[in-house]
Amino acid sequence: MDASLSFLPTWLYTAAEIPARERQRYAERLWHPVGCSSELPEEHAQATQLLELPLLLTREQGTVRALLNRCPHRGMPFQDPRQGAQPCRRLVCPYHGWTYDLDGQLRAAAREADFLQPFNRADWPLSALPCRELGGLIWVAAGPEPLPLEDQLDLLIDQAAGLLEQPRRLLRSNSVELHCNWKVAHDNTLDDYHVAIAHPTTLHREQGPVRGYRHLLSEHGSLLATPWGPSGEFLTFGLAPWTHLLLWPDGRMALIQFPPLAIDRCRMDVWLLAEASQKEGVDTWMDEMRTFLKEDRALVEGGQQGYASGLRPGPAHRLEQRILQQQALYGRLMGLTDSELKG
Ligand code: FES
Ligand SMILES: [Fe+2]
């Protein structure tokens, strides 16, 4: 059987050693949307997290930076991730008061003359991670040499560059924990075979009949386009590492991500972005998203149980080709050998 036409073996969803390898070979080589440009105004800082790294996003003279939210002196965070973006011109450590510029340079340390060894401010900057803004989102890479962002987002940029750059605000966000490996949730969101069966009154209505589906695959991403409104298309992009970007012709954008928490647990983050004038309909929109994602939750948590019982997955369908595309990319980045792919 041709391995490229088969699903990944189930040990990749259940073996204890996989998260460390995924982090090093897969997640650290890719970019992650960690915030929305509109939510980080000039001279603000916002604490967040990426792959267990405490991050501090700052904006100064228009430039967004991703600094480690960890004081080099004794490790204290500068800001709490539960707070939103905070206005600030300097970052002041709440422990002993070391004070940083928003670009991460140490500006002052308390009682600087009395350190027990020679002290030079330039030796103590905050570490910075690769950080870019694109499509109204802030993208950060956790490793030093990520794939170029334009490569990772190849199909999205190619097919939706104009739509992507429309002005939007983050109108709602929601996070829940799922009891499954992140790949079960990612696979499921790439799965165009189940929609008519599992979401007959929700997502299936939004996407319409299967005969209207249009698929595109690239090296790093996939697209399902379905007719929407009188002449538009509803675009669903599947992106590495565990990201989905939904774009409607009226300018709305939904981002869904499944960052891993453990081999059998992940988080589902949903962000809804649109123009401020579209705020009125956002409760209905979030309710619709929640309803079909709740249907998916039962499926992915059940699927994880099946995988954990030692299944050998069955044949892939044409409408599951977006899953195979992401799995092939995953296999390449992970460096999976032929014998590993056979399980
Ligand atoms: S831990 Fe930040 S100044 Fe001491
Ligand atoms: Fe689904």
Overview of the structural elements:
- This protein is an alpha+beta fold and 343 residues long.
- It has two domains: 222 residues, Naphthalene 1,2-dioxygenase Alpha Subunit, Chain A, domain 1; 102 residues, Rieske Iron-sulfur Protein (3-layer Sandwich), CATH 2.102.10.
- Helix content is 25%, strand content 30%.
- It has nine helices and 19 strands.
- The strands form four sheets. Strands 12, 13, 14, 15, 16, 17, 18 and 19 form an eight-stranded antiparallel sheet that branches. A five-stranded antiparallel sheet has the order 5-2-3-4-9, with no helix packed on it. A three-stranded antiparallel sheet has the order 1-11-10, with no helix packed on it.
- A hairpin with a 6-residue loop joins strand 6 and strand 7.
- Helix 4 crosses helix 7.
- The longest helix is centred in the last third of the chain and has 27 residues.
- The two termini are 13 Å apart.
- The mean pLDDT is 95.
- Bound molecules: FE2/S2 (inorganic) cluster and fe (ii) ion.
- The site of FE2/S2 (inorganic) cluster (FES) has 9 residues, from loops.
Give the oligomeric state.
single chain
Task: Report the average pLDDT across residues.
Answer: 95
Number of helices: 9
Rounded to the nearest angstrom, the distance between the terminal CA atoms is 13 Å
How would you characterize the largest beta sheet? Answer: 8 strands, antiparallel
CATH architecture of the largest domain: Alpha-Beta Complex
Which ions, cofactors or small ligands are bound in this entry?
Answer: FE2/S2 (inorganic) cluster, fe (ii) ion
Any idea what the radius of gyration is? 22 Å
Structural class: alpha+beta
In CATH terms, the superfamily of the largest domain is Naphthalene 1,2-dioxygenase Alpha Subunit, Chain A, domain 1
Run of helices and strands: HEEEEEEEEEEEHHEHHHEEEEEEEHHH
**Beta content:** 25-35%
Low-pLDDT parts are none
Residue share in helix: 25-40%
CATH class placement of the largest domain: Alpha Beta
Overall geometry comes to globular
Q: Would you tell me which CATH topology of the largest domain applies?
A: Naphthalene 1,2-dioxygenase Alpha Subunit, Chain A, domain 1
